[in-house]
User: Fold these one by one.
Assistant:
Number 1:
Amino acid sequence: MKLTVDGLLVYFPYDYIYPEQYAYMLELKRALDAKGHGLLEMPSGTGKTISLLSLIVAYMIQNPHHVRKLIYCSRTVPEIEKVLEELKNLFNYYEKSQGEKPNLTGVVLSSRKNLCIHPDVSREREGKLVDGKCHALTASYIRDRHERDSSVPICQFYEGFNREGKESMLPYGVYTMDDMKQYGADRNWCPYFLARFAIIHAEIVVYSYHYLLDPKIAEVVSKELNREAVVVFDEAHNIDNVCIDSLSVKITRRTIDKSSQALQQLEKTVAEIRDEDAARLTMEYEQLVAGLKDAAIQRETDTILGNPILPDEVLNEVVPGNIRNAEHFLSFLKRFIEYVKTRLRIQHVVQESPAGFLKDVSSRVCIERKPLRFCASRLASLMRTLQIPDPSHLSSLVLITHLATLVSTYTKGFTIIIEPFDDKTPNVSNPILHFSCMDSSIAMRPVFARFQTVIITSGTLSPLDMYPKILDFNPVIMSSFTMTLARPCILPMIVSKGSDQVAISSKYETREDVAVIRNYGQLLVEMSACVPDGVVCFFTSYLYLESVVGAWYDQGVVASLQRHKLLFIETQDSAETSFALINYIKACESGRGAVLLSVARGKVSEGVDFEHHLGRAVLMFGIPYVFTQSRILKARLDYLRENFQIRENDFLTFDAMRHAAQCVGRALRGKTDYGIMVFADKRFSRADKRSKLPRWIQEHLRDSLCNLSTEEAVQICKRWLRQMAQPFTREDQLGVSLLTLQQLQSQEQQDKIEKQVIQK
Amino acid sequence: MTTSSEDVLLSVNCVRYKKGDGTLYVMNQRLAWMLEHRDTVAVSHKYADIKTQKISPAGKAKIQLQVVLHDGTCSTFHFVNPGGPEAQAKDRDQVMVLLQNLLPKFKRQIDGELEMKSKLLSLHPTLKHLYEDLVISKVINSEEYWNTPTLKQYTESSNIKQEAGVSGAFLADIQPQTDGCNGLKYNLTQDIIDAIFKTYPAVRKKHIDYVPNKMTEAEFWTKFFQSHYFHRDRIASSSSKDLFGECAKLDDHAIASAMRHTTLDLTVDLNKFIEHVPLLPTEEEASNEKDRSDNNSIHRNMIKRFNQHSIMVLKASQKSNSSNNSNSSSSKTSNNNNKVIENGVKDTNGVSKRPAEHSTEPIEKKKRILEQIHYEDLVADQGNDDVQELKLSKVERYLLGPSYQISQTSVQTSHPPPLSALASVCQAWSSGQQCQRPARVSAGAAVGALGELSPGGALMRHHHAASMN
């Protein structure tokens, strides 16, 4: 349908529309008009993506001078593929109603592993190896060598692209990963570099968060993107953690060992070259003296990773004298590695600030701050000079230089924690040095500053006011949408006690209590007896999952569970888990029904959808608080309290509830779907927890559903399931949760929608 | 009255059936029971109808024997010999042993097809009528009759029998009983053994290897129940004594190879979800060391075994399904096909890999994505307007209605269909529910009412409160 959103003609590729989609577009348009940032929460499965795409595309077509580009960032590869298919849908709809496709190009950028079409390189299973092999075939010096000696292998696809690819632009249209590969294969062009080149000009770019948020990659990939762009972060409920991870470094003893090895190898190579081709090293030295830090001739293929620090922190100075010479630099690095190694040799936990660390470095091994800051770029330059064919085995050394550069650049918002052992295994020495970012706004700031509109959206962003605080920005719009429903297709319940009236809770004191574990088991058994097809359970941590499953086996819960459904359990091995998942789906599809035990914050909870029969019920056993004894977390909490006035408890609850909501939200996809959401913990019924659930769940969580025993919950489920099993037609939905164009245009509906938007 | 031609093999007095005492007769054709002082047979079961017999466990106060019929009903006989429990047990065992010998003789395998056909005929008087008119009067032979397209479709569609899968809890259901002197007794039935073999091919292999050459059946199962393989919470012993130590390894291999040969759906391939930062060591690599020093590997091992168990149970039931109904194009079979393709690709291992991957994978993937982004309620279903789906409440009626094919084609010329058949069809119509429909409530209202009446509903709450008072 073609609808008008606040005067803007929007092509919407469906015949019907959900009221909240319209409301969402209204809000979104306000943000675009104001050229400001926005925060929007809309329930999962109400067509967020298509609403976003159709409004922004319409806006771009009609206001080409205000918004020139859409950068759509999503979290996982499947999400990215879905976005592209929806965009394709939209383009097809434009074509159908206008006769021609819009004059826009939509491109995806993904890692080399996903885009490579080279027959040998693409066969590698690990992304790192693909990157390395690709580099070995495309680096500028390899290609120079090929000029002289044609037996040196190069990549024909890159050569093809380099010869012809840059002259023409991609024809208008949407290119998914497979389309890119096909397009590349047809022309003998490398799809990866084609995509890298295409995103500069394409109007719509879809890629993963890292390409914008991680400075190491953003510098290489997203440097030249237009500023007049709308950036969308979809599924952004975890964005602060992505920001933090992109600026944090973790060093283990293994890293040290590997980097020492790599260093030795480098030394050998330098010595060899010194004998054979000393001119090359001298030339690099001269360049560094002259300040041509990143020699201007640098090619796109030569850098895989950029500087780990944000662009505004990069020093535009000449590399300090003591690390200009290759040998000097390597011995400098050696000293630094030795230093880190001694720091790892500890018996108790050490926590210190970057400034303290720097001071210690300088007093113990006489390393100054300034050369440290250049470490990462100096190593990159050296690797180029040495013409390392496959840089993937140097990864640990690269990581060490990142640590050096980061620690000497940032003094505020970071902390260093050295732990001699894992808290769970105090006897096994396993020292880890965490260089941890505590301020998620650091990585986010350049994005907010650079692009005119940044939209942060997800199905679960409640409470909304937390995000502007932790990301440090001022949104012009901030709204949460509920879900209009013609039938109550979600059934959230808080089960607070077992049938024996023992309160159930995963709080530390009671979580190992036999009665609690038994009641959890009983709840699951009874639910799996009355719920058809798939049931998914989330535990607060993997350790807890393990101990509960052990106890359940002893108590016979597992046996009675197996009488009803097949049992699958998430393991820490992701390949194993994937296989279990695919069998879980098979079991649900064949009608056997299955139970999946999984972990909140785990990979399953973050990326897998359990739509329709794959997840008729989700049980959340306990509140998924993050491991509160973690020192990194404590440091971050302190920092948040001091700098953003966020109380520890508020943040912990916020974090736990967004993960709980994320877990239970996995079950619902669309209004024709239905699912039970069981929160099995007494503490969920407290106001501070309940109020932090997304509005669309809260609305259905009536008081009568907040303090149930297992039996009551099962009774309610049975009744509700019978209701849901009745045929559900479009006529039931129309006018309430589904609108035709006429209905949408009626004054009454408009008022209703206007009211529905809950602004904070 | 029993026919005199039957011999009474055994008669037992003092047998109670439904609170009446009487005599149980074991005859050569049937099992019969007569109430005392009566001369009519109250219960009579032909041996062919009897599926199994069951007896009450030793030690129970009541000494009983139950026969289960093929149609699911069962009769229970209670032995009340005044001589006391021992005499009762003796009576019962006599009957039991006799039945044990007799029943298998009558357990003839009725030809499934024949049974189905006769059932079909008995269900549909019109069909029977036609059959009589056409086949018995030698107009066409029986084969021709059943091969007419409509009937063929009918017989074949119901012919596909779905084999019952394996219960997920079959191992857990083998509850040991203590025999009173520090021993455990496991009751194994043929069903359970079948389930074990079906699910754990490795055990079947062991069984073939060892029984009966190296050990007896009983020894084999004793070893099985003693092994860690059965007890999941035990860690595999490295000693070679454990017969089943190898089985666990074999299972691991089987699962691992299945894992390699399964093309993972893009929505579940967790490894490919997140794009890693190039060049830097990945998370797994860094935490490699930590994993090795796991402290509670019992649990971890157990979890692994649970997953394997479920996967194998699923596989066991799927194998039989897909071999049975290869023509049903369910998602299951498409998955299997997928696997085959993948395997084929694996074998060629080289040049042909690329094109194959290119042609099949993206299509599958795209289908899956489109499925995921599809909103069924947002799209108007105009595409389906011209292809109206035929909804039949009663398929037989459609197939066997008056205008049905046999009567028009081969038969009509030579032998007109009997009018009586038509008449009976019409009669069936007019007397069927189609015409006189009792007043009904709508589905929604019915469910609502049911809900209110079930525990926790509005109506029941009131009732509950009242009874509390």
Number 2:
Amino acid sequence: MVCNMETDLIEDMDIEGLPSMWPEDIGSDKQFNVERPGGGQDMLEEVTIPEDQTIVDFKRLLELTNYTDKGSSQMAYLVKHWEYRQSNAVRLLREELDNLSRQRQESELKKLEILEEHRFEEEGYGGDKRPISIMDELSDMWKDVCPRKNDVVFQSKRVEVDAEYDTVEYWKQRALDLEKMLEASGQREQALMEKLNESVTNLEKQSSPVEELSQILKRADNFLHFVLQNAPVVMGHQDILGKTDVEIFSGAGVKESQDFKREVLEKGLPAKREITFETELFGSKTFLIYVEPVFSKSGETIGVNYMGMDVTDQVRKREKMAKLREEIAVQKAKETELNKTIHITEETMRAKQMLATMSHEIRSPLTGVVSMAEILSNTKLDWEQRQLLGVMISSGDLVLQLINDILDLSKVESGVMKLEAAKFRPREVVKHVLQTAAASLQKILMLEGDIADDVPIEVIGDVLRIRQILTNLISNAIKFTPEGKVGIKLYVVPEPPFAKEGLKQKSKAYQSATDAVKEEKHQPKSQTASDQNGFHDKKHGEGYQDHKHDDDPGTPVSHGNSMDEDLEATVWIRCDVYDTGIGIPENALPTLFRKYMQVSADHARKYGGTGLGLAICKQLVELMGGRLTVTSKVHCGSTFTFILPYQVSPIEENSDDPDDLSDMADQDSVTDDVTAGFFQFQPRTLGSLFSSNGTSRSKKLLPNSIGFGSAHKVNGFSETSYSFPSNNRQKETAPLEDACSVAEVAETLSEPESSFSHSPEPENETEVSRGKQCHVETTSWFQNPATESTSHSEANREMIQTSKTNEPQKICEMQEKPDRISQSPSSSSAEVPETKPKPKPKILLVEDNKINVMVAKSMMKQLGHSIDVVNNGVEAVHAVQCQNYDLILMDVCMPVMDGLKATRLIRSFEDTGNWDAAAEAGIEQAMPSSGSSNHFKRIPIIAMTANALSESAEECFANGMDSFVSKPVTFQKLKECLEQYFP
Amino acid sequence: MEVGQMQRRLLEYTKSLFMEGVLDNQFLQLQQLQDESNPDFVAEVVSLFFADSERLLNDLTRALDQPTIDFKMVDSHVHQLKGSSSSIGAERIKNACVAFRNFCEEQNIEGCMSCLQQVKQEYCLVKNKLETLFRMEQQIVAAGGSIPMMELSF
């Protein structure tokens, strides 16, 4: 029993005795660095424990246990435990005693019973009514209470007697039996007595708590020894016995753990912490340190319980886990991001697709709207309608342009755009682009084209796209060039460094179309080389005597030379589009080719445009395997350069097959000098109708016959202006005799204000002035140049028709001749300053306020102008009907008719050639005969506004006024304004 | 009085007119337009202005006296007056006219009436001042001196 208790106790004490020493969350033994011995192995086998240590010094023990709270609680626990044991033992003993005494009573009762039975039997066996022995019942009871009693042999045996009842034999036997039973009972009593004694001694043995306590302590001691024995992994246990932790540990982490202990000591609260120690044997080890403060009875902290556990692996695992978790998080974030990007990309693609589709869908109806509007603009309209229509058309054109740009861009971006390969003549393309640009030129700009001789006559490429690029760049250049020149320069360059990739790209792009070109290649070409050479040689003189491509010594590039040998040689042609414009600031260069980018918002406002042009150009150039670059200097101009590769077809003979010229449908180009390398387009130059190039084409470009007709109608007025056509004629013919192919275009014929300067043939004019039938003459005049096209003569005929109807007016105009000379705007004289002195402009002042009139008149006088004055809008219209003015100063706010309306009426007249609008407004024509033919030029009208707010200015512009002067008019303002119109 | 002194007085007087806001730079413009070929230009313009203004003021007074006021007409008269006064540089009249036109737009009869009174006052002021100015100029000329020009910048 003692032995049992002991083994029980070991386990009890391990956990119950030191419950608070380990942190609660350390549950499993695995966490300890202690190797659990295998089953069956005696834990203490190896431990040699000197037995003499079991002596307990009670005094010391008390001292120890009273020293700390922990100790006293331990002590209290031990005492409690002992008391429990004690009471348990007492209870058992008492039970035993009870048991024994009961048995004794029983046996006595039995004895009595037996005796009574005997007596009863003797009396007559009546007592057999209670056959069940008390002992039996008791023993049954005891079975439940104390199973230990089982080992006590205690049987109640019915005494069996074989002998016949009531014989002597029977009684004898019975007496014997009873004797035996008594004896057994006596023996049992004996045994019980022995057991009692045993228990008593046992009780005595257990009764010492000190003994028990010392046993527990011994076990704890043993356990500690065992732990140390099993902990040689960190240090030998001999090394630590009798040493303090500071002495034992060294290296990193020690200080931290010391600090931690101190911290706990100060705070008085238990805490855990992970501390990494640098151990000599095992390197870095992380321990989970649990430190618990130990309090004295008085509540002071007197020390700590310190426990460490190696959690290196766990920490490592934990760190790994954290890392993994982190990685997973990152992965997840990335995934989300990716998904988002994919989503956005998809959205963008869809949006782009949608935009393209929409643009396409919008384009068709818009084209309808714009073209219908254009047709409408050719019908008879009043001034207001015309103005509205003008806005409509220009807006429509802008939208159309924007949509086309967007479509182009999306095509290029999505790779849908296919390039076509067709033969074309670069010279003609350049010329054509310049002519087109010149036709709509509204500034005094020189347009130049200069193509080097080494540029092949024909190359293969996507002429439409190249033209698109050139047109775009040229129109940009013109837009941003207020004066000076704009030009295109073409020359062959060696293969640029980016060529390789570019070539690949290009060949891919062109692949589809090359076959078709090959077929064309060998078609007969009838144009003779000498035809072209004629002009060219003369023009370039000694410098370019031999211009033929195949043997041109000046051709430096092998590509160019190898044209004859190779069927498909590549030539790189560099194209510079230069201008003398406002230039591009350096900081704007990087974003220049981006979509919807313009140099600045100011520029966008001032110059308009979609901001897509350059982006498209760049993309197109790159699609064709080239590069588009720009160099620029602010205020000096910009040069856009693109280098493109072209296939060159062998030119045994020059082709003039019109089918070959994909972009040149005109028949007259046949007679053009195909090798002409230099073109110049000057606006408002004279005698252009005689130039060898571009005459008829420019005519075809004229927007409508009205502008054209008007230009010629005014031809009739002046004999003095006679001199400038002839002057110019000479000037023109001189280079023509040199066979210089200077191409001058009559593009400005369509512009009203330039019409004065376009005084052509003298005969023509005199014919008209004489009022004769001039049909024959004019026709013959137009037949003068060799390049006469049918469309041209048609235009002439139309013109002649109008001039015929206007004959009376022309005569009348002749009478006003001197006036008209002086009226010629200085803009025309600026063109040909040598021909005549600056005329005095005729100025009309429309002002109702007498004082203002007086002041303005006086100011104008000081400025050297005399002015006509009228007092209201109606009078102004009358004045304009009767006289030709070069400038009108118009008060806005006037009685009878305000300046805005008067301006509208005058503009309407200028546009339509009649005063119908004025008539509708109730103004009778003052001089009925002098109306429609007088002038179709646009008279500059300057508003004079009392309040110079922007709104009012806009209103002025909207009504057709050109600028405004705010009132009160000052000398300076007036001077500036006049300088603007009469420089 | 000595010519030089008279000239100085004229200049000071002119300057005071500018300071008081009776005249503005536009008046200098007029003075600049006056030269040998047109020696009385300023006087001519100003007298024309007086005549015109008096007519306009009469018209205005009459128009505002009507039982139903034709504000459009009133406005056009005021516009006229404003135009001419700004042309000769009579700044205070011009400013009064601006207020007048605002009331006109609101069809505020009382405002218009008070503005008319103000314009009349301003007109009288300008007229008196300018007449004084011209008298001084005439005195200088009579004394054989030349009329000094105001500096443009002050």
